[in-house]
Amino acid sequence: MLNFGQALIHGAQTYPDKAALITEDKVSTYRELNARVNRLANALLGAGIRPGQSVAVISHNTPEALELLWAAAKAGLVFVPVNVMLKRQEIERIFALMKPRACVIEPELQKELPLQVDGCLRLLIGQVYDLPPYSFSYEAFIENSSEVEPRIDVRPDQIFTIIFSSGTTGHPKGIVLTHLARSLTCLFYAVEFGITAESRTLCATPHYHNSLVIVPLPTFYAGGTVFLVRKFSPSEILSRCVKDKITHALLVPTQLNMILGSSLIPPEGLPLLRSLVYTGEAMNETTRQRVLREMTPNLYSLYGLTEGLGVVLHPKDQSSRPGSVGKPILHTEIGILNDQGNPVPAGEIGEIAGRSSRQMSGYYKDPERTSLTVRDGWIYTGDLGKLDAEGFLYVVGRKKEVIISGGVNIFPQDIEQILATHPGVDEVAVLGIPDEVWGEKVKAVVVPRPDACLSAEILATWCHENLPGYQQPKIIEIRSVLPRNPAGKILKQELITLT
How far is CA 150 from CA 39, 47, 100, 429, in A? Predict the structure, then answer.
């Protein structure tokens, strides 16, 4: 049995009485967690679900979601985490494609579940008194199941999980990842972020996000302890960091902004935090400097794709390489390619592409989009960037978002970085909109800080003082919020229609 679940077996054998998972009201040792996972795996197999079939989870950060992940690994099932923010139509599309045989779900999220899914068991988390058809209490389902290891032969090249992308345009893609790919990911990130058996890791990003495999799951691999936060709040995160002596954490820039704006950070910062990783979107320079100054100097920037690429900027390079996302992690190669697929010299801009020993097998039942993304073994990211002479990567924007005005290429991220340095700006998005004369013109949409007195005229002056003429926005719009998809990514396409 060579599969992802072997890591939990190793933990139960090596650290049986050590805390593996800690929630608000429960501590589970590696022995106890492994036993519950085995009970779930055997119950699913006993219900007639066979290796290769899929099981889904729709929940916030719960122990049951993690138990299903490990149980699927041991039973040879395909683990499909579903974003809790998706609406019924989107979930129906995923269920129609994946045909899950079981779904672990929190009762309050059932309203978005398809009304009828043939052959799909609903396993409801927590105390449930009125069970709908085809539904069972999760605890009752596993109560009398065996704790012995499932006798299932699972190969490293078998599909372990299918993660659906956030999809800023079009329908989400099902990213297919094998047991070997996910195992290598955990091992590589454990090395990259210094995760060991002594690590005390905060899990505050949702399980349906790829971040689970960046810090929390590598902690299980190393024999450390994971502290699970069901829902994010600045006060809860800071309290847990201090009270539980957290050493490792991953947060996205939106979460870090909320923490910085809460005025709850201890005066001494978080001195026990050895690795604070951020990923998901770019962080503006003002926020980055505040994190380094007010929270911890041990900041890691991660640029990565669920498809299997990772680039990390280490704490030692944060000050000397502003704007860089770092260098590739273990077993990863990054190149900058022109439109003909040929490498460009250092310093020149092209499309970021990469390959690794842990990359996806493809998009599930979508050979057309797979062939567009993976060419000659290289994953084409759709991002534009450049490499400096020492191999540090700089991301300048999305290829599809480049603004071409009067034949000149304008990169939105360059303008966003300047606008973000204004003390009154909280968030900003820059995009191109059609123009009869120039082809496209620059539009900036800005969200002010709560206490800021900001106007389009003030920002226009700021741009005039800090940007060359061709980069200066022709339209500046002030808004209270930016539209985002369920993964938190800004939907610039929606801003085009709001002119």
Answer: 9, 14, 20, 50
Q: Are strands 350-356 and 332-337 parallel, antiparallel or unpaired?
A: antiparallel
Continuous segment of H or E residues that includes residue 413: helix 412-420
Contacts of 83 (CB under 8 A, 6+ apart): 164, 166, 206, 208, 486, 487
Q: Does domain 402-496 have CATH number 3.30.559.10?
A: no
Are the C-beta atoms of 75 and 41 separated by less than 8 Å?
yes
For the domain 183-398, what is the CATH superfamily, name and number? ANL, N-terminal domain (3.40.50.12780)
CATH label, 6-178, candidates 3.30.420.40, 3.30.2350.10, 3.40.50.980, 3.60.15.10: 3.40.50.980
CB-hemisphere CA count at 13 Å for 377? 8
Domains 6-178 and 183-398 belong to one CATH topology: yes
What residue ranges in 376-497 does DSSP mark as E strands? Answer: 378-387, 393-398, 403-405, 408-410, 425-435, 439-448, 475-478
Q: Retrieve residue 7's tokens.
A: 């890591």
Domain assignments of the chain as residue spans, ordered by start: 6-178, 183-398, 402-496
The contacts of residue 1 (CB under 8 Å, 6+ apart) are: 74, 149, 152, 153, 154
Compute the distance between CA of residue 248 and CA of residue 250 in angstroms, rounded to an integer: 7
Q: With contact defined as beta carbons under 8 Å apart, do 81 and 57 qualify?
A: yes
Which one, of 497, 382, 347, lies nearest residue 433 by Cα?
497
Tens-digit pLDDT profile for residues 479-497? 999 988 766 778 888 888 6
CB 68 within 8 A of CB 79: yes
| 409, 402 contact by CB (below 8 A) | yes
Neighbours of 78 (CB within 10 A): 22
d(CA 118, CA 99): 8
CA distance 378 to 363: 14
Separation of alpha carbons 6 and 20, rounded Å: 15
Which contacts (CB < 8 Å, 24+ apart) does range 130-139 have?
138/64, 138/104
In this predicted model, what pLDDT tens digit does every residue of 435-489 receive, in sequence order?
888 888 999 999 999 888 999 999 999 999 999 888 999 999 999 999 887 667 7
Q: Which two tokens stand for residue 288?
A: 């980055």
Lowest mean pLDDT among 64-78, 309-323, 324-338, 396-410: 396-410
488 against 251, higher pLDDT: 251
Closest CA relative to residue 478, chosen from 443, 457, 448: 448
CB 178 within 8 A of CB 103: no
103 pLDDT band, cuts 50/70/90, is very high
